[in-house]
Amino acid sequence: MKTLVGVDVGGTACKTVRITPEGELLQEKVFPTRGEEGRAAFVERLASEIEPWMIGEDGAEALGVAVAGLVDETGTVVEAPNLLDFEGWKVAEELSPRLGGVLVEVANDVNAMAWGERILGAARGASNVLLLALGTGVGGAIIIDGKLYRGTHGVAGELGHVTLQVDGPPCSCGQSGHVEAYLGQKGIAVLAGGRLDAATEEEKEKLLEACREEGELNTRAVARAAEAGDPLSLSILQDVGRLLGLVCANYVNIFNPEVIVIGGGVALSGDLLLAPARRSMKERAMRATQRGVRLVRAELGLSAAAIGAALLAQGALSESGEMES
Ligand SMILES: [Zn+2]
Fold it and tell me: How much distance in Å is there from the Cα of 137 to the middle of ligand 1?
């Protein structure tokens, strides 16, 4: 049986998976990225971790690498705020010779995640898909006519860095008022903090308790209290959901997608967040552009980017005509 290997290089952890061409997960491993030790040391560590999966009869036909950063059209990591030493990394050039010349496909992690969701997850079978990954940052990916849309230089899809408000709060990219400044974890914490300040002692009791359990006011604390039925936290999620829906309405008017997939930690709140988002998207988007559009939660979980990267590598392999039957 032929196999594929996918890698997701994140700021703190590196996830690796070995899957069948149908996407069945055979094995997975996670190890710390330790970017501070430098890229060369990381490449060596990664190569020795996955080498056993590349050799023998079941050896991988292709390797997909997803990176938490912008990847240009040559497969070079050009901007990686959480992996500074990896900027300039020509991924295939450095990995492929170390792994017997295997085909290496490189992608931004959110693009890989979106591809995984389209092949195996929440956007299965859809041709026009947007993915918004709500985490510390807000990542985006665009699939048009069944193909990942990469733009002129490979770096399209930055749906989190679209301006919502002139002179809004600062964004991690150096600009201000971007979607990420509102829907990233920090933005949501600021919104929640404002609501906490305005609440009575009795109203804030449950959320404060969840904050103590989490060690801080963060999206997990809000989600946890909301799931337990806390009215203040539910109403915070409603506010966030309304904003998310408004943002999605913008995308719907531009792209007329079939599905918008919401991933990342914040999406774990599920319908507590997505139900108000659907309502506000419906109110804001044009009637024709929103016809039939679905706003859904990602399905593939923490391995989505690694699995998606492996599937992208499979696509690159069949395009290069090397796929054996
Ligand atoms: Zn930004």
Answer: 9
Q: What is the reported pLDDT for 323?
A: 47
- How many alpha carbons fall within 13 Å on the CB side of residue 301? 3
Separation of CA 44 and ligand 1 centre (Å): 33
CA 120 to chain CA centroid, Å, is: 15
Q: How far apart are CA 189 and CA 173, in angstroms?
A: 18
Instruction: Tell me what pLDDT residue 268 has.
Output: 83
170 C-alpha vs ligand 1 centroid, how far in Å? 8
The length of the chain, given as a count of residues: 325
Residue 35: the pLDDT is 87
Question: Virtual CA dihedral for 28, 158, 293, 252, nearest 10 degrees?
Answer: 180
Alpha carbon of 226 to ligand 1 centroid (Å): 28
Do 3-116+302-319 and 125-298 agree at the fold level?
yes
Cα(315)–Cα(55) distance, integer angstroms: 21
Domain boundaries, the chain: 3-116+302-319, 125-298
Ligand 1 midpoint to CA 176 (Å): 6
CATH superfamily, domain at 3-116+302-319: ATPase, nucleotide binding domain (3.30.420.40)
What distance in angstroms lies between residue 164's CA and the mean position of ligand 1's atoms?
Answer: 10
CA of 187 to the centre of ligand 1 (A): 12
Distance 247 CA to ligand 1 centre (A): 14
Say what the pLDDT of residue 18 is: 97
Residues lower than pLDDT 70 in the chain: 322-325
Asked if the 125-298 domain carries CATH number 3.30.420.40, the reply is yes
**Taking the CA of residue 174 as centre, how many other CA atoms within 13 Å lie in the half-sphere pointing to its CB?**
1
pLDDT of residue 322: 52
Give the pLDDT score at 325: 46
Query: How far does residue 110's CA lie from ligand 1's centre (Å)?
Result: 15
Q: How far is the CA of 256 from the centre of ligand 1 (A)?
A: 23
The whole-model pTM stands at 0.94
